[in-house]
Amino acid sequence: MPTDCVSYQKSGYFTKLIADYLDKKTELKSLYNRFPTLENFQSQLDEKSQNYSAENRKSLVTALENQYKGFQISEATSTNISLLSNSKTFTITTGHQLNLFTGPLYFLYKIVSAITLCATLKKENPDYNFVPIYWMATEDHDFEEINHFNFKNVKINWNKESYGPVGRVSTQGLNDVFEAFALELGIGENASYLKELFENSYLKHNNLAEATRFLANELFGNKGLVILDGADKTLKQLFIPFVKNELIHKTTFQKVSETNAMLEKEYEIQVNPREINLFYIEDDLRERVVFENNLFKINNTTLSFSEKEIIELLENNPEKFSPNVILRPMYEEVILPNLCYIGGGGEIAYWLQLQSTFEANKVTFPILLVRNSVLLVTEKQTIKADKLNLSWENLFSNQLELFVQKTKEFSKFNLDFSEQKEHLKQQFEKLLLIANQTDKSFIGAVKAQQTKQIKGLENLEKRLLKAEKKMHADELERIIELQNELFPNQGLQERRNNFAEYYNEYGQEFIDKLFKQLKPLEPSFTIITL
Hints:
- The chain is of the alpha/beta class.
- Helix 7 packs antiparallel against helix 8, helix 11 runs antiparallel to helix 13 and helix 19 runs antiparallel to helix 22.
- It contains 24 helices and 15 strands.
- A hairpin with a 2-residue loop joins strand 4 and strand 5.
- The protein is 51% helix and 14% strand.
- It starts with a strand and ends with a strand.
- The radius of gyration is 28 Å and the shape is globular.
- A five-stranded parallel β-sheet has the order 6-3-2-12-13, with helices on both faces.
């Protein structure tokens, strides 16, 4: 099948920070440990080997075995969990929210990137094992971000209230969602599979964490994906010393603030640290821990603790403490023998704020890899793009800029009056020289006339462009129509559409193509023709 790529730097969809990171700008070198190249993974492996204990491995395997109890586990995943006991086994991790029925397409792209990278590393390092990890963000509490997905042009929504960690949200009430989705799917073998997948995931499991584990396991268990829930007392115990440090010394706030002060001179800051980057959680509660009047208080509650009391609570019930977005990366790296984190541009941006915090806590900072992105196109759309003489870079352009660019290409005339404007400026420069040598009161009149003449040319340029747009309206309309098909609401397809739309049409072949064509160490927008 034909493929093509558009670099992230040229796509227009990535920030200057990520573009400069991908370009390996020297000014950013202090913000990460090693750049994601095949050669650098050996050094990362050596460093992580020295800083990850056998005790942590044992706790990790115990936690995973407990989490998978009651689930039908694939042989590949079972093998990978067992391999994590081995000191020569390392992980490649990606994380994602518990979006209903996977949410947007890039859920798949993250996981495919992690699995594919593990296979690549195994070929290069046959004496070692590499396990793909999907970190479920079960402790997030923004339910409105995850309670829906888009199927074609229909928003499938789960109307429910939730206040605590989303992983604990009951799946009751999803029957109505299932029925609405089933109606949209229609009939056919692929539609039947998707209905069964939704039903088995959400109607036969008690909470969102269990449902998501089942769903991700059904989609990727045969590839050995290991699904990890960080909301685990066994794993939280490993993080107690770091939580204690966060409560008492507030190192994260200090270090990230210093990094942000350096970054904000050139870039937008992705996240800002809190004085304490922890939440307190219960079934229906996830609130910030704040320090006021020498007491540790739980925001929007009456709960408060002295230093001694909160440390005692931490040591007895570490599962009640949840790291926020800034502290969670360190939690991941403490409990996992991890070499690399794979994330989107926004995720990698906030990871780049954390290197100094890791150094202060003596935790190995992972390699940061921007995940693969995909633009899915049909053969019909590919043919249409060829007929309209459109490159993929063209289609990634801002719509107004593309409209103007193509109008100029279609026109028989030169619609750019830059040459005429430059000639006019040169003439007025000569007039200004004369004015300076004769009557200086004449200078203002010359400058006013120059402004008037330049503006006149600009108006003529706009009128000619408008006339040419009208002349080539049919071709331009087809271009915009194609771009709107590929970029819904002039945004990325992968951030809006759900995988079911494509699976319903193409079946397992769709996911197989992702594995075949995505290359994690060459992150870019990969165009895949279905």
